[in-house]
Amino acid sequence: MDVSQVATNASRKQPSARELMLAGEWFCTPDMELARMRMRAQELQRLYNNCSPLDIKQQQALLARLLKRVGRNSWVEANFHCDYGVHIEIGDEVFINMNCTFVDGNRIVLGDRVYLSPNVQLMTTRHPLQPEARTVLVDGRRKCVQRAAPIVLGNDVWVGAGAVLLGGVEVGDNSVIGAGSVVTRSIPPGVLAAGNPCRIIRSVYE
Questions:
Q1: Catalytic residue status for 87
Q2: Which pLDDT tens digit goes with each residue over 26-51?
Q3: Where does 3-203 sit in CATH, by number?
Q4: In the chain, where are the structural domains located?
Q5: Computed from CA positions of residues 186, 173, 157, 63, in that sequence, does the dihedral angle turn out positive or negative?
Q6: pLDDT for 138-157, tens place per residue?
Q7: Which of 76, 130, 151, 198 is least buried, going by the fewest C-beta atoms within 10 A?
Q8: What are phi and psi for residue 93, nearest 5 degrees?
Q9: pTM of the model as a whole
């Protein structure tokens, strides 16, 4: 990674940190636009996670404001956490169980009939491996360097409890990710995959 180029891009403020983030390029934080987006998302999550479970209409209204898309008959259990919300798209008849975390520095897309078990983490962002590259000096301020890649889950995907999916991963239609797995590479359709790192075990049709 060219650290000097990161600093140059940030100091010029063109393109913005959010544009770099969504383009999969290195970007720097803190950034005012991203901070405002995070605070908005945090407030909506606070309201959602503290909403009465009997107040279904209020929960649905808050989810519609928080996320980019929520499909028909989809549901997200509290406590739910995300960075921005506006980069998350959820298909129809999706169920997201309690305590799931979406770090949506880039797009997170869930197809139809996706089931996420408790404590699943979808983590789009990462930092440079080299310690000296993890921060840069921009206009006299020390800033954190990050990069984000999308996560896409196809239709009819089931992710087991406590699994972690990293940025750039795609999971094909009908596949199952075992509990506690760490998914660092894309998984094809129609397979059971598990482990750390996650690997294909067999077809789901056997």
A1: no
A2: 999 999 999 999 999 999 999 999 99
A3: 2.160.10.10
A4: 3-203
A5: positive
A6: 888 999 999 999 999 999 99
A7: 130
A8: 55, 40
A9: 0.90
